[in-house]
Design brief:
320 residues, alpha/beta, globular, single chain
Length: 320
Amino acid sequence: MTPPMTNQLEQLRALSAVVADTGDIEAIARFRPLDATTNPSLLLKASALPAYAPLIEAAVAAAQGADTAARVGDAGLRLAVAIGGEILKLIPGRVSTEVDARLSFDTEATLAQARRIVELYDQAGIGRERLLIKIASTWEGIRAAEQLEREGIHCNLTLLFSFAQAVACAEAGVYLISPFVGRILDWHLANGTPKPATPADDPGVQSVARIWQYYKRHDYATVVMGASFRNTGQVLALAGCDRLTISPELLGELEAGHDTVARALNDDGQRAAPSAKLDEAGFRWQHNEDAMATDKLADGIRRFAADQRKLEDLLTRHLS
């Protein structure tokens, strides 16, 4: 008797580490990812789930601060850590917890909040070996991540759209980057580019593939985790990438699919020394030259900040 064909999700796991892009513990329990990533948008969505109501109440009850704004901010961090703690009960690896996007251009404030997040996890009995601090890939954010890595606090650099961002992150010794795929395609389609004929022609897929090849060529240890997928075609076109963070909806589609999954990214084994390090002026100019990346980084920061404010409004209502 011929055994049933392995589904696409299981085939993909043999080529890339699969990460869940969600704060939904039921979805995480179902799909058994290595790691899980969260952000303000996902935490806002998760906060509407009945399973998290006790965590919200506990975060609000424990919140500290001299005024309402400070207490709300502290409650937000406690809620993010509490949700992260629940997720860590279900996965063997790490959870990413994000620094407030409104601090994206302030290195010192990013450092302070990152250390506070680590402190709150430590108070909950969770060590930094289970964590990634998620920071926007601005020049200031990359500098904060460089310092945190020196302190043994590993980071996930998000909202990464340009090659300059990827190079600067590798040079800073960042543990992991999350280059976006779907949002890059969104921008190109909105600006008149025809829909790609195949997933391999997708500009978001091509961006991640270029970064992955560059890291391998120059022996950078930074993990590349493709993110922000719009469809399974984009995911499978990056099979072989170090890690892929995927929404529950797309994980379900992959689980239901049985077509063969082939390795899409291959390391040719060639190695070369990297060029001179990017300084701040070089980084800003190269990033500025990429209109898509400039637009999407700014837009992503604004969107995460807006959802952070909505989450704080929810916590304010609970406080009152």
